Structure formats: C-alpha cells, structure tokens
Amino acid sequence: MAGEKYSSEIKETMVRLYNRGKGKKIKDLAIEYGIAESTVRYWVVDKPRRENKTKVKESSNSEAEEMKREIARLKEENDILKKAMTIFAKN
To answer: What is the pLDDT of residues 41-52, one digit of tens each?
Structure first.
C-alpha cells in the first residue's frame, strides 16, 4: 500500500469519524479501513496542526508588514515636522 493515494472523501471521512462526539481511536480507524495508522494520524492530527501553524505565521507576517509600514509613515511625518521646525525657527 506504500505510495497509495487516497481520495479527499476518504480523508474527510476519517477526520469526521475521529472528531465526532464519541469518535473512534486512530488505531481502530486504521484497522477498520486498512489504512496505515501513521497515515490516519497525519490526516486527523498532524495536518490540522501544521495548517494552524501556517495560519499563525501568515498572520504574524502580515502584522509585521503592517508595523513596518506604520514605522515608515511615522518616520516620514517626523522628518516633515523637523523641516517645519527649522523653517519656523528661522522666522
């Protein structure tokens, strides 16, 4: 069964069976459907965990970019105020 591809329907079914109220254990699902336990574990535990980490990273990256833009804007405003102060100080 190495290298065998499973349909998204099978994957979703495994996740649903595992997650519902009194869900089945990973080992039981693997035995019942003849799929490697590690494969089932990846579908129901590891993959969602990795997807969440990716979402957190993307969120952190967008926040960092937003902060960089804000810092650049504030620096520009600060430079303008310094120039205006110089002009007013001469008068």
So the answer is: 888 887 766 666
Domain, as residue range, for 86: 8-90
CA–CA distance, 7 with 21 (Å, rounded to integer): 24
Residue 70, both tokens: 């804000």
| Nearest-angstrom CA–CA distance, 52 and 67 | 22
Separation CA 46–CA 20 (nearest Å):
17
Tokens representing residue 91 in the block: 């008068």
DSSP state of 24: P
Q: Is the pTM of this model over 0.85?
A: no
Contact predicate 67/74, CB 8 Å: no
> Is residue 91's pLDDT more than 70?
no
Is 67 among the domain residues?
Answer: yes
In a domain, 20, yes or no: yes
- Between CA 39 and CA 28 the distance in angstroms is 13
Mean pLDDT of the chain, nearest integer: 81
